[in-house]
Amino acid sequence: MSALHRSPRIRFKGGRGHVAVVALNGSTPAALREALSWGRTHGTSVLGVAVDGGLRAWRAIRQPCDLFVGDADSATPPAETESIVYDPNKAFSDLSGALAELHRRRIAIVCVAGLTGGRLDHEWVNLHELAAHAKSFAGLLAPTPRGWVVVTAAGASIETKPGKPFSLLALAGRARVLLHGARWSLDGEWIEPGSRGLSNRTGRSLRLSVQRGVVCVIFPNP
Q1: Distance between CA atoms of residues 108 and 93, nearest Å
Q2: Integer Cα distance of 213 and 41 in angstroms
Q3: What is the tens place of the pLDDT at every residue in 174-191?
Q4: What does the pLDDT look like over 114-163, one tens digit per residue?
């Protein structure tokens, strides 16, 4: 498994704000440390969240979380931590519940550790959940062993090293976007879910504006 690479410097539309660092069941300590580093650098404050079994990652780095959310089928909520515990027979995922709670708390940006670290079906659902909740936040992003994933329904300015590969993909239906600073730009064009936007190249900075829909920007590791 590849080592985690540092994220590009990202400023979501709306600027800095409150950041939630969320550890999922598949989070590694390294991914959580990277998410925390990003949150502390880019946020005005950081709320640490354990989504059920993600509590193990917080314990592994010997740092308490601020909030536990889940149905407690993978971890027991700590007695000293604020907890929101769901009925195990609920009709939504723990991540979906956590994102709804973070929106209620006016969190601006969510940084997720463990997005791709769990069961295969959970990985797919996790990405769909980020897309479904994207309009509730300025942006969501996730460090993974294979690169960084950014999801937004608004847009962002991203400082990058020239010539690096990235992909811009539509999620949850088609999206209309402006993209400047890449080898191949988009000027208010519609992109459909699929391969358009795959394997672009960065310039010194990317300027992305999402006019309609939700997009995912993927920065794969070399």
Answers
A1: 21
A2: 28
A3: 999 999 999 999 999 999
A4: 999 878 998 999 999 999 999 999 999 999 989 999 999 999 999 988 99
The residue to which tokens 């699929």 are assigned: 194
The reply to whether 99 and 180 lie within a common domain is: no
DSSP for 101-121, written as a single string: HHHHTT--EEEEE-TTSS-HH
Does residue 35 sit within a domain?
A: yes
Q: What is the CATH number of the domain that holds 169?
A: 2.60.120.320
185 torsion bin: left (phi>0), alpha (psi -120 to 50), beta (else): beta
pLDDT per residue as tens digits for the range 101-114: 999 999 999 999 99
99 and 191 together in one domain: no
Residue pair 165/201 in contact (Cβ under 8 Å)? The answer is yes
176 and 81 within one domain: no
Domain that holds residue 212: 155-220
Last residue of a domain, one of 108, 126, 145: 145
191 and 133 share a domain? Answer: no
The residues near 79 (Cβ < 8 Å, ≥ 6 apart) are none
Residue-wise pLDDT tens digits, 58-71: 999 999 999 999 99
Alpha-carbon gap, residue 146 to 160, rounded angstroms: 17
Which pLDDT band, with edges at 50, 70 and 90, does 7 fall under?
low
CA distance 10 to 146: 18
Is residue 87 in some structural domain?
yes
